[in-house]
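User: Last request for today: this protein with pyridoxal-5'-phosphate, please.
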Amino acid sequence: MTHHIDTSLVHIGSGAFDPETKTAAVSLPAVRTSTVRFESLDALEKIQAQRAQGKHVVTYGISGLDTHRALEEIFNTLEGGNYCVLSPSGLASIHLLFISLLKSGDHALVSDGIYGPMRTLDQDLLKGLGIEVSYFSPQYDDLVSLIRPNTKLVYVESPSSLLFEMLDIPAIGRVTKQHNIPLAVDNTWGSSHIYKPLALGADISLVAGTKYIAGHSDLLMGALITRRDDLAALMHRTQYAIGNAVSGDDVWLALRGVRTIAVRMPHHANSALTVCAFLVTQPHVTRIYHPAWPQDTGFALWQRDCSGSNGMLSVEFNCTAEKLKPVVNALTLFGIGFSWGGFESLVQWVSPTALKPHRAWQGQDHGVLRLHIGLESVDDLIADLKQALSLLNNS
Ligand SMILES: Cc1ncc(COP(=O)(O)O)c(C=O)c1O
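Assistant: Here's the final one, the structure of the complex with pyridoxal-5'-phosphate:
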């Protein structure tokens, strides 16, 4: 019998029954280990041979044990993948993706609205390794004309960081397939639940589990999910080679968090829409960036490709970013911080420098605030926004 994904999410990754007592804990315990024991040298040799082929097998704690397998199974089930490679943060997954698939002399095309620290990784590390990265606008550039003979990866984020620009993943996937180039998608926004890049034509889905998977702002985690044996072998081999280990305790926390994603996400999403409806009534607001908001330019793609939304939105104002600083400081329920996907509301003052490389940005000298709408009462959040935005009337 096939079940709805929300049903599977509650039941998969549970521990097996003890053969003696015929009981099992509902919540799988965290298996912590640095090393494992082998029944015999024969068993060890067999596993080592599999490792040499890039198989995901356990010879040491770096590969994790039962708790890790349970979370990998959940990611695979949610994303429709066959292989999942965990990393100790989302950024570590991005790093792992690039160094697994690319070598010196290779080139990658990356969408220009990508998560900001990707550019730091590029400048501070990939460049030195001889891996060239160039950025493109999925909206304005012709991807085909940018592909070079040495292009070995196309990496995009949809919707984009900061402006939530929806990308046409099936259209991008058709191009990358024709040219036999792997397409990887940062699916942290969808967090494996409301957006399925692999089903839409991507080869790899990347998720910062730090956000909605964890849901409680208490851990860092990354995952790369794929259906392809060849890409999984490359990523598993590199993961082991660089010792990209994830703590059993963090995996356990992620397992506990992800069990409730199906109820948390719609709550964040509904509150975010209510906040959008309030914001558009405000005199200084010029535009809302939130793909589930009907006036958003990505709304049609969002309707076509996503099964839900979340609590992320950006707001553009008819004043400079500088003028928004007192507004940010006046907010009492929105913490000033970068991350998102936890239970709490957050505000990010968006630096104009961060928006510049994103060709979808048309607001020139307008200031932008990015909000994460948490699980607080939405009426309280709106009251807080109202009092803080009133400062703009006097400036
Ligand atoms: C879209 C996106 N991808 C990746 C990351 C990196 O995740 P982590 O903070 O776990 O390194 C973030 C973090 O903010 C993000 O927003």
